[in-house]
Write a structure and sequence with these properties.
Layout lengths: L8 H14 L10 H10 L8 H16 L4 H9 L11 H12 L3 H6 L1 H17 L30 E5 L2 E7 L10 E7 L12 H9 L12 H11 L11 E5 L11 E11 L2 E3 L2 H21 L6 E4 L11 H18 L4 E6 L6 H4 L6
Parallel strand pairs: 2-8, 3-5, 3-7, 7-8
Antiparallel strand pairs: 1-2, 4-5, 5-6
Helix pairs in contact: 1-7, 2-3, 2-7, 3-4, 3-7, 4-5, 4-7, 10-11
Length: 365
């Protein structure tokens, strides 16, 4: 016990290891002593009536402290089922998902990275308990019952009205994986179709981890997008590297729960030393290829395709200036929509400073 009345970090680590096996639902029957103490100390619960829910909210807050784009933070979310629809997953599935974050086997994760995750999460719990007193953070999601696994989680992502040439579009300032009810999401890839690691803060990495499917306890987690791309390449020996602007489709994996039907992978980034280079002209090629692919798929088995969502292609690890990417995307979409206006178009960015390129009223001639 520390002088401030909080438990030792080692005690919290041990309780987290035990809690990992039962998962968050097990808190409803028993909140272990050390976790109970930090939950009450931090004000996440007032007493026995809300102790279990408060402990879950505090674990979520501690994982949030570690950061969703950090490897340890992302693995902590997976290990404890903190991602949408994963709260009640079996322990084996949650461990597999965490191992996927690091790109290692389940066994290697158990013997190596998992210990670091528990250490860091225990430290984050203590840091959360020692923060200035006040009500629990309002941004924390409320605990959900196991039945929530079968329902999509509603995350409001209101779009801004915009225009591309003479055509209306919707602009979202949001992570792409939080969008819903858009038929086709477009991802930016390199010309070798190697998706970004799932822990990277990129469009490719975000879609990869959001599409992961956790199967039955005896099965493994399926890295849907990467596996479908690998199968596409294996069926076409010698196809790599692709011509910049080539578009390859895959299914949506778990993104289907959010109303997504397809993911289009636009190969625009060309390896260049330790980084990438993106020719802006490849954006125009990729946009045209996305429209062409969507038309073919709408005719051949996906008649419901009506909407497409484009990020700022090549503006992440591709190294292209995001304003240049936005300008080329605007020009390319205007050209494509002039020829084929029968589509609902969405644009997604995390950078509000690029939205005026799509939302500002064009000057009157």
């Amino acid at each position: 016990m520390n002088p401030d009345g909080l438990p030792d970090r080692a005690e919290l680590e041990e309780e987290l290891r035990i809690l990992r096996r039962g998962g968050l639902p097990s808190l409803q029957s028993l909140v272990p002593r050390a976790l109970r103490d930090v939950t009450l100390h931090a004000g996440y619960a007032d007493g026995e009536d809300d102790l279990a829910d408060g402990a879950e909210r505090m674990i979520r807050a501690a994982a949030e402290r570690l950061g969703p784009d950090d490897l340890i933070g992302r693995a902590a979310q997976c290990v404890f089922g903190l991602l949408p629809g994963r709260r009640g997953d079996p322990a084996a599935d949650r461990r597999r998902a965490a191992a996927l974050v690091y790109g290692v086997s389940d066994e290697r994760f158990r013997h190596s990275q998992e210990k670091r995750v528990m250490e860091q999460l225990a430290g984050a719990l203590l840091a959360e308990a020692r923060r200035p007193q006040g009500p629990p953070r309002p941004s924390l999601p409320a605990p959900r019952s196991d039945s929530a696994r079968t329902r999509p989680v509603r995350v409001p992502t209101p779009g801004l009205p915009g225009r591309v040439g003479d055509h209306a579009v919707t602009v979202h300032v949001s992570p792409i994986e939080l969008l819903r009810d858009i038929d086709v999401l477009v991802s930016s890839e390199n010309v070798h179709l190697e998706m970004s690691k799932s822990f990277r803060p990129t469009v490719s990495g975000a879609l990869r981890r959001a599409a992961v499917v956790g199967c039955a306890p005896e099965a493994s987690v399926t890295d849907v997008l990467a596996e479908e791309l690998a199968a596409w390449v294996a069926a076409r020996p010698g196809v790599l590297p692709l011509s910049p602007g080539t578009v390859v489709p895959t299914g949506p994996g778990a993104l289907a729960e959010r109303g997504v039907s397809r993911v289009y992978h636009a190969a625009v980034a060309v390896p260049d030393g330790h980084g990438y280079r993106v020719d802006p002209q490849s954006i125009a090629t990729a946009v045209a290829a996305c429209f062409s692919r969507a038309r073919r798929e709408r005719a051949d088995g996906h008649p419901g395709l009506r909407s497409l969502c484009f990020p700022l292609l090549g503006a992440g690890r591709g190294g292209l200036d995001r304003h240049t990417s936005a300008e080329w995307l605007r020009w390319s979409l205007a050209d494509a929509l002039t020829a084929d206006p029968d589509w609902t178009i969405h644009i997604v960015t995390r950078h509000p400073d690029t939205t005026p390129l799509f939302t500002a009223t064009p000057p009157t001639p």
